[in-house]
Amino acid sequence: MNKLVLIFTALLIFLVVACQNNESLLLALSEAEKVVDNSLDNDLSLRNMVSDGSYFYLAAYGTLYKKDVTASSEAEWGTIALPEGTTGLTALGFFGGNLYLGFFRQGADDGLYLSANQGASWTELSQFKGKQVLDLWNQGSELFVSYYDESRSVDKFGLAYYNGGTYSDTALSALANPVLDVVFSGSSYYAITKSAIYGDADPSLFSEKGKPSTEDAFKGLFYSNTYSLFYVSTDAGYVYSSPDLTTWTVSAAQEISSTKVKVSFTHFAEINGNVLVGTSNYGAYQMQIGDVTKMDRPEGLSNGDKLYYAYVLRFYIDAPRDRVYFITSDKGLFSNQYKDSAWGNTWTWE
Q1: Within 13 Å, how many C-alpha atoms sit on residue 110's CB side?
Q2: Which residues make beta-bridge pairs with 169?
Q3: Which of 136, 134, 112 is nearest to 125 (CA)?
């Protein structure tokens, strides 16, 4: 019996020492993050998410979802009927108390629709009849509409804006490439295409501004009021920041560890001082103090997690609940809480 006790004790000591020498194993055993899978399909191709204060609205390519903001994370998402005869839902926005839906369907003219009653009925906006809507941004006191006009022979892309009175074209009414992002700095509006940044306090007077010195294609633009910095993402592994669109700080090149392929970044968001940026092939990155030279991945995500390799198109920030929603184009909707400079212990797959 004493021999058995000695063998067992020696084995136990060996395992403890082994674990002490394997930090990743200890972390996996004691601090592994929990992923909870809820009601939405896990392969949804999503476009955007907004809220009117009472409900969340989530746009997939062919479906509009709705959920009470006070509902538990386990509660199911309902659906809202799209305007009759429309397909190809590409854009979702909320502005002036109204929901907006934009559609893009080659050869069709679905355009832009408005609902003043939380999706119970829809009104087509005649100003965008015959145009395809690519994206919507609620910035400052304006709703911006990125569109494609198939009737033109050249420069088919444009950017319009609406302040609650009339829809007008910005100075970017005839572009060879679409506008990818629009931001408001507190005094002026800025828009970005794959090769240029434009800005002015009056969108009808947009003119070209400074930009990072690179041949890489731009993918997203963001302005942080916390850090008073502009951020630009690219398709070749770099993120830039600038206080004035003149002097730029660049991140180290970010690569997919297994293939060494450069990460293609997407759009930005910020929650409680943490600047986030999505990617088209490698989940999301964070800059917890807004510094592009100190980028890393959100804690709790490892190689085995679906979000780690997801196409994170953009984010929705639920500020009252300190929650971030990761809107992906290939793996549905993820969320987690971020507060006091730390992620929550549970990642939710909605």
Answers
A1: 22
A2: 160
A3: 112
Q: Is residue 303 part of a domain?
A: no
Both tokens of residue 15?
């395992």
Task: Enumerate the β-bridge partners of residue 162.
Answer: 143, 167
Q: Tell me the C-alpha to C-alpha distance, in Å, between residue 85 and each of 57, 88, 103.
A: 20, 10, 11
**At which residue do the structure tokens 């408005």 appear?**
114
Measured CA to CA, the distance from residue 253 to residue 341 in angstroms comes to 24
Residue 203, domain CATH: 2.120.10.30
| 215 Cβ contact partners less than 8 Å away, ≥ 6 residues apart | none
> What is the rounded distance in angstroms from the CA atom of residue 150 to the CA atom of residue 108?
9
Number of structural domains, the chain?
1
pLDDT in tens, 292-313: 999 999 987 766 677 888 999 9
State pLDDT tens for residues 137-195.
999 999 999 999 988 999 999 999 999 888 999 999 999 999 999 999 999 999 999 99
